[in-house]
């Protein structure tokens, strides 16, 4: 049985002054081993015709995290503070990609920046600096700590009773890692909260009306997913949704 093909949009990063289209290996590994999919890197060229052509033979989309931030004018936010990192090429690809994937009923999994992209693409808004918002805590990692600590458990998430995550976790409270400073300010219409941090920040959401699976997470389940039963269940469920899509596509 052929693996479902899952597209991952690339970041555009400069290496030796040349732009490269790149995806972190942990996302590729989680897709290959955790979801049983064939990852397909989508260049972030912002070309609608290319996206449409690519979507025709994909079975799912994984939107990965990134240190870069969505340009705030795309969700009606104030101009960025000096020094904020952006990736306009990725914005120009991922936002239309989410809309088209939902229209076509393709399964979508959004992680960290990817979750923020799902929200913005569907009409939501973001906080640009969660740590500066009254009542919210600092969701950023200590960037000088070893990676094991940066991606280690950071805070709890209260899961929505009856939600997908609560069912997979067998619990209404899980512990997650946390490596972001932006977050959901207003959830887009049609999105349903799956979990919130103890300060009330939305950490996970799904879309019930989507013809395919749509789940977005502010944390990083791809990090050593095999050591965490909820992360393992997330990638298994996403892989199953992509396999169903592939079966229908090949009918
Ligand atoms: N820049 C945004 C999104 C944060 C994010 O996706 N971090 C990922 C870091 C690298 C990785 O593990 O892929 C924000 O700060 O909210």
Description:
- The protein has 251 residues and is α/β, with parallel strands linked by helices.
- It has a single domain, classed as Rossmann fold, CATH 3.40.50.880.
- Helices cover 30% and strands 24% of the residues.
- Strands 4-1-5-6-13-12-11-8-9 form a nine-stranded mixed sheet, sandwiched between helices.
- A hairpin with a 4-residue loop joins β11 and β12.
- The longest helix has 22 residues.
- The model has no long low-confidence stretch (mean pLDDT 97).
- Bound molecules: the ligand N[C@@H](CCC(=O)NCCCC(=O)O)C(=O)O.
- The site of the ligand N[C@@H](CCC(=O)NCCCC(=O)O)C(=O)O has 14 residues, from loops.
Number of domains: 1
CATH level 3 topology: Rossmann fold
- Average pLDDT over all residues: 97
What small molecules accompany the polymer chains?
the ligand N[C@@H](CCC(=O)NCCCC(=O)O)C(=O)O
Strand order of the largest sheet: 4-1-5-6-13-12-11-8-9
Helical percentage: 25-40%
Count of individual helical segments: 7
Number of DSSP E strands: 13
- What Rg, in angstroms, do the CA atoms define? 17 Å
State the CATH architecture. Answer: 3-Layer(aba) Sandwich
Residue share in β-strands: 15-25%
Distance between the termini: 13 Å
From N to C, what is the helix and strand string? Answer: EEEHEHEHEHEHEHEEEEEH
Structural classification:
alpha/beta
Protein name: gamma-glutamyl-gamma-aminobutyrate hydrolase
InterPro entries: Class_I_gatase-like, Peptidase_C26, PuuD-like
Pathway: Amine and polyamine degradation; putrescine degradation; 4-aminobutanoate from putrescine: step 4/4
Catalytic activity: 4-(gamma-L-glutamylamino)butanoate + H2O = 4-aminobutanoate + L-glutamate
């Amino acid at each position: 049985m052929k693996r479902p093909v899952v597209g991952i949009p690339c970041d555009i990063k400069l290496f030796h002054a040349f732009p490269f289209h790149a995806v972190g290996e942990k996302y590729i590994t989680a897709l290959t081993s955790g979801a049983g999919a064939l990852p397909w890197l989508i260049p972030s060229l912002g070309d609608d015709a290319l996206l449409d052509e690519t979507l025709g033979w994909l079975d799912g989309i994984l939107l990965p995290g990134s240190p870069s931030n969505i340009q705030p004018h795309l969700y009606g936010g104030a101009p960025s503070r000096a020094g904020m990192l952006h990736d306009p090429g990725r914005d120009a690809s991922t936002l239309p990609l989410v809309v088209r994937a939902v229209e076509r009923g393709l399964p979508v999994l959004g992680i960290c920046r990817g979750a923020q992209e799902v929200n913005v693409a569907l009409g939501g808004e973001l906080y640009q600096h969660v740590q500066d918002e009254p009542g919210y805590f600092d969701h950023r990692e200590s960037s000088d700590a070893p990676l094991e600590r940066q991606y280690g458990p950071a805070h709890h998430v209260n899961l929505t009773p009856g939600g997908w995550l609560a069912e997979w976790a067998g619990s209404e409270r899980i512990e997650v890692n946390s490596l972001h400073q932006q977050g959901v300010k207003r959830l887009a219409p049609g999105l349903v909260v799956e979990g919130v941090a103890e300060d009330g920040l939305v950490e996970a959401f799904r879309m019930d009306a989507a013809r395919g699976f749509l789940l977005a997470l502010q944390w990083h389940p791809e990090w050593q997913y095999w050591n965490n039963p909820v992360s393992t269940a997330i990638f298994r469920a996403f892989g199953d949704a992509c396999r169903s899509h592939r079966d229908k596509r090949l009918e």
